[in-house]
Amino acid sequence: MITHDLQSAMSDVINGLKLIEIDELSGENQIHYDRACSASDTLQRMLAVLFDNLKGEKNDLATEIRAFELAKFVSDIQRRWHSRASAKQIEFKITSAPNLPEKIQIDRTALERILSNILENAIKFCDEGLVQLDIGINLDENLMFVVRDNGPGFSKEALNLLYEYKGRPENSAKSGTGLGLHIVKRLVDQLDGTIDVFNQTTGAFVTVEIPYSSWRVSEQSSKIPDDEFDLSGLRILLAEDNQTSQMVLRKQIEGFGAIPTLVDNGLDALRQLETEDFDAALMDIEMPVMSGLDTIMQLRKRDDIKGAIPIIAVSAYVMPGDREKIMLGGADHIVTKPVTDAAAFRATIGATIAAKSDENQRRFATQKISREPLIDQDIYTALESSVGREDMHELLSKILIDLKSVAGALKKFVAAMDVAGVRAQTHVLVSVAGAIGAKSVQKSAESLNISANHEEINQVREYYLECATGLTKLIVEVDHLKQQNAFISS
């Protein structure tokens, strides 16, 4: 669970930063803001690698590598390290060759860690002048990263211990652990690259060369343009209980042109899906009242089109056991929070909807879904005849008030597992549903009442879901009948 809590906390930091109105910040504070954003994004990716190691991955590289824009990557490096250099009153500069590729496909976290360790050393040992990062590409199409500074350079002792674990001279002028270049060498080796460290009269030079085979963009990635998936006008249900994550995800979804509907627990997600049509659902896993996993599993029990809605789990879980449970529970895809790559997020939503739509079209092409009417027409007609059409409107209004009251009370009592309260409310619901002819709701209320009487907690939860779903539909139906009755009477 600590992995989930760490990811959730990191998600709040990143999402909170995204909600800051940067136009209102002073120039200096905008620099600090940029640095915090860049560092938090890097930390999030490093946490993912750390958790991969905890689950048994033995190297420092991430398991999923996507193509990303090199210019944006360079901009992030500039944002993060400019303020660090400014704090020491030295200049930080990046130069990029004009022939650089637009995108590269490499483990971004590894590349960030390589450059961060080198730049941190350069800024630490440089007390005046300039730290510069030059990025280029040679004739073999290998990427070149050269960091140079105006510091004192590496001592002879330091050069002898350069890549060793805690390889640090005893009388070093600056504090540190001696791990930086040891980490860099491991990561460069895993990328099949090379590193060269030497001194010149102007200070230290560190050159990292990444071969073309390690950064080239695969054909599959190059075939997917950023705008391939148009989500304009699509309705997306977002089930998320964290308000910061709600706001950030809502803004992202709206930015894709889609229309989000927000709920903060799994039960409300089920009720929303029952009464409205959506193109996809984004489901947090850890939510109150009913978890996202339980919600997904309940949906997949249905044998109709609503039960086959495309579902993307948006979760801080990263361990393989958690992922396996979520996928086996019925999710179509998992996105790890916080969602920092908007383009990849949009592509994931679009691809999931497209794939699921094709699957559902095949599955339901010849299937005719017939449902028993929610309200028995004979019972309803008899009720209307006994009270008269004019008084029926008032009766329907009272029934609607009772149903809404029961729905709210049941939700509260089940959440607190107050079986006495559940018994009282289901007793009312059995009477009201029976009077209007809602046999299925009446039956589920009776089952829930019996479970509450016997204090069968698991059964109470199970029957409550069935009862609450039917009750939500009944409220919509009674409201419709009330409006219809008012129109006929007028």
Automatic annotation (TrEMBL):
It catalyses: ATP + protein L-histidine = ADP + protein N-phospho-L-histidine. Keywords: Kinase, Phosphoprotein, Transferase. Residues 235-352 form the Response regulatory domain. Its EC number is 2.7.13.3. Residues 1-214 form the Histidine kinase domain. The modification 4-aspartylphosphate is found at D284. Transmembrane segments: none annotated. It comes from the Bacteria. This is histidine kinase. The lineage of its organism: Bacteria, Pseudomonadati, Pseudomonadota, Alphaproteobacteria, Rhodobacterales.
